[in-house]
Amino acid sequence: MVMSQVSAPEPPPSKYDRLLARARKASPAATLVVYPCDESSLRGALETAEEGIIVPTLVGPAPRIAAVAREHRLDISGFDIVDTGCSETAAAKAVKLVHEGKGELLMKGCLHTDDLMRAVTNSSTGLRTARRISHVFIIDVPDHPEALFITDAAINIFPDLDAKRDIIQNAIDLFTLAGLGTPRVAILSAVETVTTKIPSTIEAAALCKMADRGQITGGLLDGPLAFDNAIDAEAAKIKGIKSQVAGRAQILVVPDLEAGNMLAKNLIFLTKADSAGLVLGARVPIILTSRADSVRSRMASCAAAVLYADARRRAVAVPAV
Q1: Which of 103, 135, 160, 202 could form a disulfide with 32 if both were Cys (CB 3.0 to 4.6 A apart)?
Q2: Lateral strand order in the sheet of 148-151
Q3: CA-to-CA distance for 184 and 211, rounded, in angstroms?
Q4: Which of 277, 292, 312 delimits the end of a domain?
Q5: Angstrom distance (rounded) from CA 103 to CA 93
């Protein structure tokens, strides 16, 4: 007797795969890739282009880009290259191209973040807006039901209350423009009660009241919350916290850059989480990945940026009633 074999059902697509699938349905974004002079940054741009997510223009020293492509057998023949000198020159040229309408996104290559952000924040030629510039990590933690948005872990070192207002609004705008609905925003501290001994708890309470008064819009805010009772429903229940956000937070607002950077990297390296990184608040979204990031992370960052840019593009295209 021959026993029939029943194949195991395929696992559902990961949060990362769903992000890519949604980005493929959007119009590809013209993307200025700044100084793609190593394998990871160049391959990340090219493979994301192959997925139909971006249309890259490579900004940097053409001979060096060509040498990297030859060494790693990457075909760059179908892509525009804007020949520049050093990394700082490439960053300044890419910012200029944004002003000329040549790119909807900036993508960091293998240059230092400071070199890119110096060009972006230049008071006379940069890409500043009235909004504070901030960074958002999008972390896909295995077995956690939803992606976590962590902000700000890369740009603002010790943000004050006004800066945190913009940091939160930037993250909410990313979440909503990416088509994810109304986010639940947890403002993190070490404890979930307000105390003068921990200033971040006072700021958390003030930010929640700012949301009540319409100074922050588009999200549900609660804080202060500790990390456990922000993301774990059982922890929130044990502490007796009754909230729409506690235990179910999607955006985690950290007290300062040190806390955020350690939190994000703990999740990335200890849980093997996929990650993406964007800078918001400038005239265009900036795909800000680490030089150690994988091609997979770069592609996820591009996907999030493209969804954001596509939503802004469609909003502008809708005539006012």
Answers
A1: 103
A2: 80-83, 54-60, 29-34, 105-108, 286-287, 274-280, 134-140, 148-151, 251-253, 184-188, 220-225
A3: 12
A4: 277
A5: 12
Q: State how many domains the chain has.
A: 2
Distance between CA atoms of residues 138 and 147, nearest Å: 7
How many helices (DSSP H) and strands (DSSP E) are in the chain?
A: 11, 11
Helices (H), the chain: 15-25, 39-50, 62-71, 87-99, 113-120, 161-177, 199-212, 227-231, 233-238, 257-270, 295-317
Query: Does 174 lie in the same domain as 55?
Result: no
What are the two backbone dihedrals, phi and then psi, of residue 260, each rounded to the nearest 5 degrees?
Answer: -65, -40
Average pLDDT over residues 76-97: 95
Domain boundaries, position 180: 134-277
Span of 140-144, 145-149, 260-264, 288-292 with lowest mean pLDDT: 288-292
> Is 7 a member of any domain?
no
pLDDT higher than threshold 80 for residue 315? no
Tell whether 145 is covered by a domain: yes
Examine the domain organization and report whether 116 and 236 are in the same domain.
no
Same domain, 166 and 86: no
Predicted pLDDT at 321: 46
Which residues does residue 139 pair with via DSSP β-bridges, in sequence order?
148, 275
Residues 157 and 263 in one domain: yes
Angle subtended at Cα 67 by Cα 66 and Cα 71, rounded to the nearest 5 degrees: 120
CATH number at residue 192: 3.40.718.10
- The pLDDT tens digits for 152-208 are 999 999 999 999 999 999 999 999 988 889 999 999 999 999 999 999 999 999 999
Which tokens go with 162? 């006004």
